[in-house]
Design a protein that fits this description.
Layout lengths: L12 E10 L6 H11 L10 H27 L6 H17 L3 E9 L4 H10 L2 E8 L6 H16 L6 E4 L7 H16 L7 E7 L3 H5 L4 H16 L4 E5 L12 H7 L7 E5 L8 H4 L1 H12 L4 E5 L6 H14 L6
Parallel strand pairs: 1-2, 1-3, 3-4, 5-6, 5-7, 7-8
Helix pairs in contact: 1-2, 4-5, 6-8, 6-12, 9-11
């Protein structure tokens, strides 16, 4: 029998923490500035010495970019708030329904709210002694997957009683992921009232230097595209979006490809973003809105943006498959 003053310990549980990149709390400049300040201060994201980078970030970028970015967010903001936060929350809810009481499934953002460290700490306080951290990045990159795990380890460093931790490996070539993409993209193509001349797969860009330093991201993206093209039985084109700054980034650039396509005789295009687990600013504004404008201005005639997996049935089934595999030995 426990003494009256014994530490109160909740029943042991198994937890899963879904983590995505992050989002401002509102589509307004102050919130965007806070978000960008945190995001662009991460040394995994911007690998420039702080003494050189911080004056540029604080003195120029955070004084000019938040207003422009907030206007972009306004175009895609939902009644539920940020699209990225909405879909990540929905993924957690759908997965929780599938796993039931056996697994405590929560979600967090690497930058912004809910914060990774706070959610992880609360999960431990609620009894999660074994936690699977699932960065929702199919293709591994130090600027995405690694920084999520960095933040988890920082949270653990402050704990006296740490939970056991596992992390979801990159799943860029996993058959479950490729099949989910095939089903989702193939289904979206069937709903179109035109036949695309090309299917363009746009992945988030990274500085070319990351490839030269040994980051596998570029190779992971290319392999995803190759496997998906083979599964669908059609040619696909690959491009990289969201260039930032003057450094050389992975090529070809999505905007340049869209602008060149009409001149190559490609007047009807469908574009998908398989590297994003959920639709967000980069897909809904940069591709679906600005990408379409660029394509039409260059002489294109038909354009379709195909949604991410989000909380679709194929997407949730794929995540369930991956999580159950990584939870083996912890769950029945």
């Amino acid at each position: 029998m426990k003494p009256a003053d014994h530490l109160q310990i909740p029943p042991p549980r198994i937890g899963v923490l879904l983590v995505n990149l992050g989002t401002p709390e509102a589509a307004e400049p102050k919130a965007v500035k806070r978000y960008l300040g945190e995001f662009l201060s991460d040394r995994r994201v911007v690998e420039i010495p702080r003494l050189l980078w911080q004056p540029i970030l604080r003195g120029i970028i955070l004084q000019t970019r938040p207003k422009k970015s907030s206007e972009a967010y306004e175009q895609v903001w939902m009644e539920e708030g940020s699209p990225l936060a909405h879909y990540t929350k929905r993924q957690a809810e759908e997965l929780a329904a599938r796993f039931g009481a056996e697994v405590d499934i929560r979600w967090a953002m690497r930058y912004g709210e809910p914060a990774v460290g706070e959610v992880l700490t609360q999960m431990k306080a609620d009894g999660c002694e074994r936690i699977l951290v699932a960065p929702l990045y199919p293709q591994y990159c130090a600027a995405t997957t690694a920084t999520v795990m960095d933040e988890c380890y920082r949270a653990l460093a402050a704990m006296r009683w740490q939970p056991a931790l596992r992390s979801l490996p990159p799943y860029h070539d996993d058959p479950a992921y490729i099949d989910a993409l095939k089903t989702s993209i193939g289904g979206a193509l069937e709903t179109l009232d035109f036949s695309p001349d090309a299917l363009l797969l746009s992945f988030h860009g990274m500085p070319q230097r990351t490839l030269e330093l040994g980051d596998p991201y570029h190779c992971h993206c290319r392999k995803t595209a190759r496997l998906l093209g083979e599964a669908m039985g059609r040619d696909v084109r690959v491009a990289f979006q969201s260039r930032f700054g003057r450094a050389k980034w992975l090529e070809p650039a999505t905007d340049a490809v869209l602008e060149a396509m009409p001149g190559e005789g490609i007047k009807r295009v469908a574009i998908a973003a398989p590297g994003f687990a959920s639709d967000c600013l980069e897909t809904l504004e940069e591709l679906a809105i600005r990408g379409q404008e660029q394509f039409f201005e260059a002489g294109g005639e038909r354009f379709a943006y195909l949604p991410c997996l989000n909380d679709s049935a194929p997407g949730i089934a794929m995540l369930e498959t991956l999580l159950r595999r990584e939870l083996m030995g912890w769950t029945r």
